[in-house]
């Protein structure tokens, strides 16, 4: 019986991933899950009591895998600047995956809905937020190596640049601007110190105001 439940639960998670990839946030509904897996809708609720619980389960499986990919990309780099660049670029590459973007959008949407309703997010959402925030821990050591007095705070602020870039979408120049801003903010791009970078329009200047 336990093995049967595990198989059914995994099938529901796979169906949820497919729905997110194919139709985004709005497609992730319990009726759609029931139809995709051939289960009765009431049976879906036996495995997940809410969308929050479903997304928590997805995050428990998928976020560590995504974090491992980012960590591997950083490990392949040989300088602090290159590791920070890998940290930024690989997260933006993952965000371009429709499933990743949709999963984070579902989580953010549920948290915002709870805030608007004046209710506290339940423990599931707190764990989702903690799991996603844990990715920032990957860059703490690099920032400490660069001499930041509070590398965890710096990591959280650096992650804010990435999150903003994700919200901007994969437009022209978004990744490049995010990388340059991250390197400059982290103090890792020594070669940029003599030049100005205008992040509002993505144009470089020579510091003369011309």
Describe this structure in words.
The protein has 210 residues and is an all-alpha fold. Helices cover 69% and strands 3% of the residues. It contains ten helices and two strands, in the order ααααααααααββ. The chain has a two-stranded antiparallel sheet. A hairpin with a 4-residue loop joins strand 1 and strand 2. Helix 2 packs across helix 3 and helix 5 runs parallel beside helix 9. The protein is elongated and about 55 Å long. The termini are far apart. 28% of the residues are buried. The C terminus is likely disordered.
Secondary structure topology:
Blueprint: H1 2-23, H2 30-37, H3 41-47, H4 51-75, H5 80-95, H6 98-116, H7 123-133, H8 140-145, H9 151-168, H10 174-186, E1 196-198, E2 203-205
Antiparallel strand pairs: 1-2
């Amino acid at each position: 019986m336990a093995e049967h439940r595990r198989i059914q639960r995994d099938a529901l998670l796979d169906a949820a991933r497919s729905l997110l990839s194919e139709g985004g946030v709005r497609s992730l509904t319990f009726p759609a899950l029931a139809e995709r897996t051939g289960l009765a809708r009431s049976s879906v609720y036996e495995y997940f009591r809410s969308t929050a619980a479903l997304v928590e389960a997805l995050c428990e499986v998928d976020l560590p895998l995504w974090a491992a990919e980012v960590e591997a990309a950083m490990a392949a780099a040989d300088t602090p600047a290159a590791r920070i660049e890998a940290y930024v670029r690989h997260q933006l590459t993952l965000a371009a995956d429709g499933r990743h973007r949709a999963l984070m959008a579902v989580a953010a949407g549920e948290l915002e809905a709870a805030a608007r309703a004046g209710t506290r997010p339940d423990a599931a959402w707190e764990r989702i937020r903690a799991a996603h925030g844990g990715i920032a821990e990957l860059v703490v050591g690099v920032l400490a190596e660069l001499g930041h007095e509070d590398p965890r705070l710096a990591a959280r602020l650096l992650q804010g640049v990435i999150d903003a870039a994700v919200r901007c979408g994969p437009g022209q120049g978004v990744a490049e601007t995010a990388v340059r801003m991250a390197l400059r903010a982290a103090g890792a791009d020594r070669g940029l110190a003599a030049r100005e970078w205008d992040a509002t329009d993505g144009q470089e200047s020579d510091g003369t105001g011309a």
